[in-house]
Every structure is written in C-alpha cells, then in structure tokens.
Amino acid sequence: MLVSALRSRSGAQIRWFLDWLVRTPSAVPSVECRLRKAGRYKLPLVPAQHASFSALASLGLQVVGTLGHVGLAQHRPTESLPKLPCGRALTSPLTHRCQGFLVSRFVMSIAELADATYSLDERFAPIRSEIAAEYAAPHNKPWIVGFSGGKDSTLVAHLVIEHLLSLPKSERNRAVHIVANDTLVESPLVIGHIRTALEEIRNAAAAFSLPVVVATTQPDGDHTFWVNLIGRGYPSPNRTFRWCTDRMKIQPTSRYVRDQAGLAGEVILLLGVRRSESATRAGVVARYDNGERLNKHNDLEGCLVFRPIVELDVDEVWEFLSEHRPPWGGSHDRLIQLYRNAGGGECPVVTSKDDAPSCGTSSSRFGCWTCTVVEKDKSLAGFVEAGFDEFTPLLGFRDWLVEIRNDPERRLARRRDGRITITSSGTFIPGPFNLATRSEILERLLALQEQVGHALVNDDEVIKIRELWVQDALASTARMKTEQEAVF
C-alpha cells in the first residue's frame, strides 16, 4: 500500500496511508520494519506539537525525480488532527526512542522502497518447511517448546501451533509440550501475560484436539528465591555469586526435559534463539552448530535442540507478530504493548549454563522483579513510567536488597557450614545474612505484599523460612558448645 502510493507519487494516497496509520497503531511495527528494510530510513525529530503521522501528511509532500527521494517538506499544519502518543508508546522497541518528539520525515529512494515489498511469507517459507519436515520425521520424539512469553519464544509457539492446525487429525501424531518457567518472583505484569497466553494455548488445543501439553515449571520448594535469601541468608545475587539462575531457572526446566526424555527415550527442545541477538548468543549458536537441523544438548542427555528461527533478525520477528494473529486466537497486541511499556527484552528459557549469561544482563530485562544482578531494573522502571505506579515500591525494595548486600553489620562471619573464608589474596568473605537481617527482610516483604496487593511470597515459603531459622539457630548453638568443649 505504502510502496504503491510512493510509486504513483500520489500525495493524496500517501496522506490517506499516514492518516490510516494513526487510526491503526497496531500496524506501526510492521510498517516500520518495511521502511527499515528499504535501506535508508532516516529519523530526524520535530517538536511534539507535530506529533502525528497524519499531521506529517498535512505538512506537504515533494517528489523529486524518477528515482529520487520522497520527503515530507515541513509546512504549517492546516487542520487539527489526532495525535499519537509520543515516545516509547509509539516507537519502542522498533525505532529510535523519541523523548517527547516524533519523526518529522521519511527519506528513502523509490528504488530502495521497491525492495520493501518482499513477501514476509516468502521469508518464513523455509522456516515453515523445516518445522513441517521435522514434525513429519519417522519417529515419535515429543517436542518441547521453551516458552518465556517473549517475542522469540512466542513466534516459535505460533509457528508450531500453526503447523499442527494445518495437519489433518490423523497426522498430528507427535506430542508438543509448551513449557514456561515461573521463578515465583517474576515481574507481575510479565507473569500475568505468560499465564494468559498459556491459558489461550491450552483452550485452543482442547478446542481443536491438538496433541499439546501446556506446563509451567517452578523451582523446588526448598530452593525458591525467598527460601534461599531469607531462610538460608544467601546474600542478594550479583555477577560473582549468581546463585539464583541455576536453582530457579535451569534446574526446574531441565528436570521437566529429563522426565520427558526418560519416558520417550529422546526429546526435541525447540528454542527461540537467534544468532543476531548478541555476539554472545552468536558464539553459543556457532559452538553447537553441527550443520544439521538438530544439535545435541550440551548438558541434557537424550535432548536434541531445534532452533527454527535462528537466522531471523529482530525486525522480521516483530513484523511477523504484528501482521499475523496467533493461531490460538486473539492478537499479539498484548505482547507488543508489554514491550513498549517495558522498553526491553526478556530473560530467555535457560536450560544450560551457556545460556545463563543472558539472564541478568543488560540485554535481558524481562524477568525477576527481585533481580539484583543488573544495575537497574529497566523493565520494571519502564512499567512504572508507563503508568503502573503500584509497582514503584517493588523498585525501592529491590534497590534496598542491593544496598544491604555488602553491609558487614548484616552478615555472619562464618559460612553456613561453619567455615571462615579468606581468599589467597587475604580478602575476608563474609557469610550469609544474620538472623536479624533475615527477619527484617521477611517483615518488609510481607508489608510490601500487603501494600501492592500482589502475591510476592507464599505461605509454604514462609513456613520453610522459619524452619530454616530454627535449624540454623540449633546448629549455631551446637557449634558454640563444641567449640567451648574443645577449649576446656
């Protein structure tokens, strides 16, 4: 539509298109992707009073040369038009962030714009073919789709469910597990989105008789975040002591994969990883790329890994999601809005320590609201900026956990096993939080839970925490008695 208008050099058509875009904001990501694909997509900024695409159309148009550039020359707007929300709500995550400003003109060559007419379905045809071929392979190894609720895992789930629906019932002969992980300290908005999406998939699977199992893994009750932090006194996680990832993400999902592999002999794990996500991700992909469709998982016996979207770039992911409704019903608008509000990415499904660096880094911002590995919780801060003021106290509590971590007055001298740790360089490493600090953290957490109106810690965790306190007190008393007896 846009390319057709530009080719015809019809100012009326372009004005109509831009005015339509104002009334259809959900189409903005797809259009932005296509304009990016055109090559030269320049984004000068203008004051917010010109902040609407239809206002840009009214600024005037000038077409220069047969293969020249189409620009929007500034003139005074002649009519009052509705305005788009400025900043993150319009542009993030697909274009430059505009702090109170919006784009003033699109500048690109008509020849380059012709390249933007590529068919997205053509780009996805090889991916769909790979999925179809693997599902039709002469074996019954179940599929496990790692679902984090983010854009990439959502795309993989979309393509898999779409393929199942395209098959006659007699050919849907392989079980597909859609598996999410709930650390029990997920950002409330994110876990709400994940639960809603899983319920939609579950309902669609039942309605269309799909061989789909929807599951959510959780950390073992003895190793939740609060049981370890408050019960055992583990200091808040940081880059050098990130005890949370293995216990809360790797172990629960790996346990599920191993259980299914034990039942079926072998499973295929579908992950929404992409080579272009980051240099680290590209390195991991390259390290385990054997040139075949399936790679052996590095840590999980009986698990083969299938990465169907590994060669896609982020714009193609967003363009697909914005142009295609999910096969389980509804739309991807909720997901798109979640990213706009948070202005970030998501912590991925993690099944090995090779993937662990993605959790708690600047490149992954959806995830645990308690994450003290990152310097700033950008997603939660983004939600607050987007109007979810009820989450402001969570930011303050998280920052307090960072603040008290290295306070020597709050830490025991001995580790939990009774040892005193001094490194080879002579640095003293304090032990866990003392009981007074653990008690204070729990008291503040329960008050915070009451304040925000969201479940932050469950009753079973509180019971386990208090049991650990009693065990620690008894162990400390016994140790002191033993030391006194040794002296005398």
Describe this structure in words.
- This protein is of the alpha/beta class and 488 residues long.
- The chain folds into three domains: 2-115, no CATH class; 120-381, HUPs (Rossmann fold), CATH 3.40.50.620; 386-487, no CATH class.
- Helices cover 46% and strands 9% of the residues.
- The chain has 18 helices and 13 strands.
- The strands form four sheets. A six-stranded mixed beta sheet has the order 8-7-6-9-11-10, with helices on both faces. The protein has a three-stranded antiparallel beta sheet with strand order 2-3-5. The chain has a two-stranded antiparallel sheet with strand order 1-4.
List key phrases describing it.
488 residues, alpha/beta, Rossmann fold, 3 domains, six-stranded mixed β-sheet, 13 strands
Examine the coordinates and then state which fold CATH places here, giving the name of the CATH topology of the largest domain: Rossmann fold
CATH superfamily membership of the largest domain: HUPs
Which word captures the global form?
elongated
| Number of domains as seen in the coordinates | 3
Q: Can you count the beta strands? A: 13
Per DSSP, the total helix count is 18
Could you report the average pLDDT, rounded to the nearest whole number?
A: 76
Structural category is alpha/beta
Question: In CATH, what is the class of the largest domain?
Answer: Alpha Beta
| Low-confidence runs of at least 5 consecutive residues | 1-19, 38-117, 360-364
Percent of residues in beta strands: 5-15%
C-alpha-based Rg, rounded: 26 Å
The CATH architecture of the largest domain would be 3-Layer(aba) Sandwich
Helix fraction? Answer: 40-55%
